[in-house]
Please model this.
Amino acid sequence: MSGLRLSWDASQPSVSGEAIRTGEPVVGRQLASDPLLAKWRSGALRLGYAAVSALPLRGGDEVIGCLTLVSSNEDAFDAIEVALLQELADDVAFGLATLRTQAREAEARQTIRRMALHDPVTGLPNRAAACEALAAAITDATPRGAALCVLSIHVARYDEVSDTLGRETGDALLRAIVQRIEGIAAPAPHGLSRVGDDALLLVVEGDAERATDLARRIAEALYPPVERAGLSLDARVAIGVALHPRQGSDPEELMRRAKVAMYRAGIGGCALYSGPHDDERRRRLALIGELKAAIAGGELMLYCQPKVDVASGRICGAEGLMRWCHPREGMISPSFFVDLAEHAGLTTPLTHWVLETAFCERSRWHDAHFDLPLAVNVSPRDLHDPKLLDRVRALIATWGIAPGWMQIEVTESALMEEPDVVIERLAALRDLGIESMIDDYGSGYSSLRYLQQMPVSSIKIDQAFVRRMLSYRESAAIVHSTIELCHTLALRAIAEGVEDEPTWRALAREGCDAVQGYYVGRPLPVEDFEAWAMASRFRPAASTRIQ
Ligand code: C2E
Ligand code: CA
Ligand code: CA
Model:
């Protein structure tokens, strides 16, 4: 029957066609006479065939084919034979339908997998697939001693373009970028994936040299903008590279390290992960991300450290010091996170928090007849913030703060940035009843001309000199001349970092007015401070004087 052309189109009548069309068996048709068989008659008769039957193959509601049989015997298809054949046809149909269902299922599974592992915008493997592929690449490369480069590629303007021109334009930019990268990186055995909205990952076999060369070429290829709808879209990327096995063998770790390097690379640049330096950077990045929530979420605490008047031996004030009680890292020093806040643009909320807390606590002290001045540290940036004074005025009103209750400390190095502005601000604070002190004196380079004009009440000698004054002549000389300078300018001299009695005595001999340091007391949580102070040998005088 080879060469037979069957059709189930009604315009070309045939036995099989009719069986398929009607879904009913067409049985025992005579080749010699049946009009349905006219087309094949001469050929079939020559082959010795006499009768033909066609049995539809039914799969559920549809006819999925037909079983056509020919016989040289005209009467071959009797009722019993037809019943048997129909049974056979039904079995075949069932088998075929099952195979089809399985094929459809496999196809569906593949689609689901493709969707689960692919990014629909670029068609690239997504993050889950990238992790799988990277793990497989590592397993494959390790026994061969082959090196892998993991490139973290950040599409710098994706968010901006999507926000301002719409997600579709952002996606078009991304697709154009992917195309350019593929043009350069091909053939990359482990390829390119989209691991975040604006983040691509490229894994290639090779060493640091190959990686930097590739990264540089990709960065260069993305310098020219992508043209779309008359707009020039900035296509530049930042690329960070981490290497297997040198910098890790865990896919997530390698991806993280490449990302850390990427932050250092900057837009249009590329950088190799560089170990501990970048780990520290990563820690800082993570903390910057958490600091904002920490300010709002009650992770900050105010500690207080006493200042003691040398002549009377009594506590004469306290300095408020911030602490970040981090759930994972423990207590983080303000010297670390104040600087971090500055980089993250969070100085203002941080200062607001400390001012608010200090004013509130100071008001409580007053209610408890514990009237010691409380000093708050402000950053140079705060002093240049035009809203600082309004803020302080509002706090004075809210907490009913009287003159002399609050003080501020400003580091010496801050004074010389636009000294005229600083003088004006400090004078305004003084008019509000808030005294200022110059902190860490000796660490900056303030000029005497400005120092004379600064509306401050005291100078705090940097602890670096105080701690060394008994062992180094130079330090002792600085402490001596600073105390002298203070008295010439009619200011009080306060020594910080006093850790032992000999230092205290040496400072007393020099005529230092007040001291602060571990010898007197370490910083304590503000709520414990009053009880500690009242029980201490430096207990404030009964009528706690404001000085
Ligand atoms: P600072 O204003 O010079 O504060 C004194 C620092 O020296 C405090 O460190 C204090 O705990 C520490 N200290 C006090 N006595 C001794 C001593 O006898 N020996 C030694 N080795 N250290 C002593 P802390 O609390 O870690 O604060 C570090 C710096 O962070 C502060 O230096 C201040 O510049 C800044 N800071 C603290 N709180 C705030 C704040 O609320 N706002 C701002 N802007 N900065 C703050
Ligand atoms: Ca201070
Ligand atoms: Ca200080």
Remarks:
- The mean pLDDT is 88.
- The radius of gyration is 42 Å.
- Residues 305, 321-322, 333-335, 338, 354, 377-379, 409, 439-440, 463, 496-499, 516-518, 523 surround C2E (ligand 1) (CB under 6 Å).
